[in-house]
Amino acid sequence: MKLFKFRAINNSGKSFKGLNYYKNEDDLSFQLREQGYYLLQCKSIHKLAYLKHFSKINLKDISVFSRQLSSMLSAGFNISEALNIFSEEAYSRALKKNIKDIKEDLEKGNSFYDSISKYKNSYPNFYMEMINQI
């Protein structure tokens, strides 16, 4: 599987950009046609270049995530439900991926700190230590 960055369009002219893994360019084109889109451009991306560009999560996304997580937990959601909801709504691809992985680790019985510490390069040290103190 290769990582492709692509741009597609549908019959009504709605443009769509994406980044995902496909077997090859033909598979990408086929999958998009199944969804009603037509491939305009695509580029194969090396995984290391992608990780370097998207591995850091910006501070605004972390702040929004923290506030919303706190609100959901205060409202009575369990942490797994809260992470599941937030992972569907997150705009940052890196944050979305991290949250899904953290949720899976929590469901395996790991603590929140142990789960998030696997991504310590994505979060500020201060944030990681705040979580550790909880």
Please specify the SSE layout and strand pairing:
Blueprint lengths: L1 E9 L4 E8 L2 H10 L2 E9 L1 H8 L4 H16 L4 H11 L3 H15 L4 H5 L8 H9 L1
Antiparallel strand pairs: 1-2, 1-3
Helix pairs in contact: 3-4, 4-5
Question: How is this structure best described in words?
Answer:
With 134 residues, the protein is of the alpha+beta class. Helices cover 55% and strands 19% of the residues. The protein has helices at 25-34, 47-54, 59-74, 79-89, 93-107, 112-116, 125-133, and strands spanning 2-10, 15-22, 37-45. The protein has a three-stranded antiparallel beta sheet. A hairpin with a 4-residue loop joins strand 1 (2-10) and strand 2 (15-22). It is elongated and about 50 Å long.
Rg is 18 Å
Distance between the termini: 40 Å
Task: Summarize the biggest pleated sheet.
Answer: 3 strands, antiparallel
Total count of strands: 3
Q: Which ranges are low-confidence, i.e. pLDDT below 50, for 5 or more consecutive residues?
A: none
In what range is the share of β-strand residues? 15-25%
**Tell me, what's the shape?**
elongated
The class by helix and strand makeup works out as alpha+beta
Membrane topology: Multi-pass membrane protein
InterPro entries: GspF/PilC, T2SS_GspF_dom, T2SS_GspF_sf
Organism: Clostridium pasteurianum BC1
Main location: membrane
Question: Could you name the key traits of this structure?
Answer:
134 residues, alpha+beta, 2 domains, 3-stranded antiparallel sheet, 55% helix, transmembrane helix, GspF/PilC, membrane, T2SS_GspF_dom
